[in-house]
Amino acid sequence: MAKPSEDQQRALAGLLGLGNHSARKSHYPELAVRLDELEKERNRYKWLFEHAVHGIFQASLKEGLRAANPALARMLGYDDPQEVLFSLADLAGNLFAGGAAELETIGDILLRERSLLGYETQLRRKDGSHVDVLMNLLLKPDQDGLVEGFVADITERKLAQQHLQQLNDELEQRVTARTNELLEVNRNLQQQIVQRAEIERALREARDAAQAANRSKDKYLAAASHDLLQPLNAARLLISTLRERQLPTAEQVLVERTHQALEGAEDLLTDLLDISRLDQAAIKPDIELYRLDELLAPLASEFQLVAEAAGLNLRVRIGDFAVSTDLRLLTRIMRNFLSNACRYTAQGNILLGARRRGDYLRLEVWDTGRGIAEDRLDSIFLEFNQLDVGRAADRKGVGLGLAIVERIAKILGYRVLVHSRPGRGSMFAIEVPLSHEVPLPANVVVQQHPVAGNPLPGRRLLVVDNELSILESMAALLGQWGCEVLTATDQDSALAVLQGQPPELILVDFHLDHGVIGCDVVTHLREHFGQSIPAVMITADRSDQCRRSLRKLGAPLLNKPVKPGKLRAVLSQLLG
Q1: Which end of the chain is less enclosed by CB atoms within 10 A, N or C?
Q2: Alpha helix (H) ranges present in 280-400?
C-alpha cells in the first residue's frame, strides 16, 4: 500500500482531531494499518458478494432494491445486476409473483419480527417464467428500513418434491388398485371357503353314509356268512364222511365233485370275509411271544395229509427259535403259502422251513411247481388274480389268498418275499421279528411223517352245538373215525348224556342259544368233573373277542366250515 502524502496525513489528522501536535502524530501508523485492514476486509466481502453461488441483495423498505450480486441476476435471467435494481413501485410487478400483496406481507413481517427465515416463494424472471426460491431476510437495526437478503434456487428440489409426490400418488394408486385386487381375491377366497365347507359337509355326509352302509354291510355279511357257514359246515362234514366210505365208482365221482364244489364255495366265502375285515381295518394285531414250533407244528400236521392226498412230499425244517407276532394272523399267512404250494405243485416236494437273517426270522415255503414268470410276480397279489392254468375247470381257488397275505403283512409291518423260476418252482417267505428270549417248549410235536397208529378209535367225545344238522354230521364223521360220540345242544343236555362220566375231549360251538357261549360250557364241565378236559372250539366267529376268550380257555380254534383233515390233525394231537 502507498504511503499517504503529507497533505493526506494532515487531512486525516484533522478529521481525527489530531492537529499538528507531535504527540498526536505518533498514532498515525496504527490508524493507517487499521485502514488497510478495513480495506482488505471490504475487498474480501466484495469478492464474496460478486462470486457467491446464491443470490444476495440489499433493499430498502422505502426505495426498493439498492444492490444485487451477479448470482441473483443470473437466477432472474438478467445479464447485469443493475437491471434488477427495481424501485419500490416496480418491485412488486417485476420480481414477486405474489405482487404487491406479497411484498406488503413481507414488509409487515420484517417490521414485526426483524427477520424472515426459510421463506419459500416464486420470483418472476425476465422472460416471464418463475423460479422457486428460498429467501432469508434480515432487517438491519438503525438503518431506516435497510434489508439484506439471501436467495437460493430450489427449483431442482421442488421438481424432486413434485416427482416424489407423483411417485407417491402413483404408489397410492397402485396400493389402492392392489388393495382392491386383494379385496376381490379375498371375496373370491371367502366364496371358495364357503363352497369348500359345503363340499366338505357333503363329503362328510357321503362318508358317514358310506360308513353306515359299510357297517350295515358288515353286519349283514357277518349274519349272512354265519347262516351260510352253518349248513355249509354240515354239508362238508357229511361229504367228508361219504368220501371215506367205500362207494360204487359212479357215486364216488359224484361225492368227489360235490366235495370240490363245497370246498370252492367255502374258500370263496372265507376269503371274502377276511378281505372285508382287512379292508375295514377291523383286525388289530395282538403281538405276543411264541415258539416257532408252536406256530408251525399245527400247520405241518394239517398239511401232511393234504400233501399226501396230492401225491406230494412235505418236509419241515424248524429250528429252536421264538418270534414276537400275532399267532392267528401269521398262521393265516403261512397257511395260504402252504395251500398255494399244494394247489399249484403237480409233483415233487414242498419244504416248510425257517432261516435266521439278522434280527429277523424268514419263514419260507418252497415248492417244485411250475413257477411264475418274473413279469407276473407283482400281479399275483391282486384280488381275484390267478395264474393261467388253461381251462376254467382246472383253476383252483378264487385268487384272494395272496391279496389277503399282502394286507395282513401290511397290518403286521412284515416284508413278503417271492422268488420263482418257471419250470423249477417258487419260494414264498415272510420276515418276522426274531426274539432273543425263547419260551419253554410246549407240548407240540412237529409231524414230519404220518402218525404211527390212530389215536381216535374208542375215544369218548362230546359235541355241543345248537344246530342239529351239524350235530348229526359231526357224529357221523367222528363215528366213522371210530370215536364214541355224545351230542348235546346246551350245558344241561351235555350233563345228561354224559351220565356222570367225563368225556376225553369236548368239541363245542362258540355261540349257543340264549346268548350262551361255548367257553362257559367248557369251564362248567371242567369244574363239574374236576378235570382239565381238552376242548376244541368250532365257530364262524372271527372276532378278536372270540379269540381272546379262547386264549383264556386254552382251546384251539377251528373256523367253520371245518376242514376234516385239520379236525383230524387237531384231535390226534390233543388225544395222542
Answers
A1: N
A2: 292-309, 327-343
